[in-house]
Amino acid sequence: MSVDDQINLDLDRHSRTGLAEAILCEGKSVDQLRAICNRIQADDKPMLFTRLGSEAFAALDTSHPGLMQYDAISRTAFVQPRTLIGPTMVAIVAGGTSDVPVAREAARSLAFYGYPSLAIDDVGVAGLWRLMARLPDIRQHKIVICLAGMDAALPTVLGGLISSVIIAVPTSVGYGMAKGGETALRALLVSCASGINVVNIDNGFGAACAAIRILNQFASTERSEATSPARKP
User: Fold this and answer.
1) pLDDT value of position 209
2) Which of 181-187's residues contact partners 24+ apart within 8 Å by CB, and which partners?
């Protein structure tokens, strides 16, 4: 079987769900990724690549120069991202600096769809004053993606302080019994703050997709209201 036969892209997914297919690069060979790049370049399609290591990107940039916009921190790459549109409705709040790569994956995934976000880093509950100082900024956003490792207390604390939609991302940060994020995930699943939405460990992309579904509904409602006949008084 040729490499091309191993690739079957779902290029119509966006029309069905509002979310286009993204390429998870982990586990894929450079040859497979090159075949994907050939397909999207030939069809002139946008694409988001996640978990793309710097060495794999360097190989792809050699065979397809200038095709991708790459960010090494988040390990993401864009092909034909949308232009950023405001206002900013999403805040991405990270408990510690070690959570930043996952936070940036969420931010870059949002940016691919044209949604800007505000990054608020290193405001974990071990120094609660840091969070309280940024609370006015956080409260201005309709959606908050909140990332935390260790015991993942930050999303629960925020859940008792703000009315925004909270999408919690447990991260794999922590020693020993943190178990690569399993403790954070379990803590969030039993959070006493009601209404927190939880995605999988280190899944900044998944958190962004959840936010995008909500944002797409906001946009759909606004378009509907703008085109509907004005009500008579």
Assistant:
1) 95
2) 181/149, 183/150, 183/151, 183/152, 184/148, 184/149, 184/150, 184/151, 184/152, 185/152, 187/151, 187/152, 187/153, 187/156
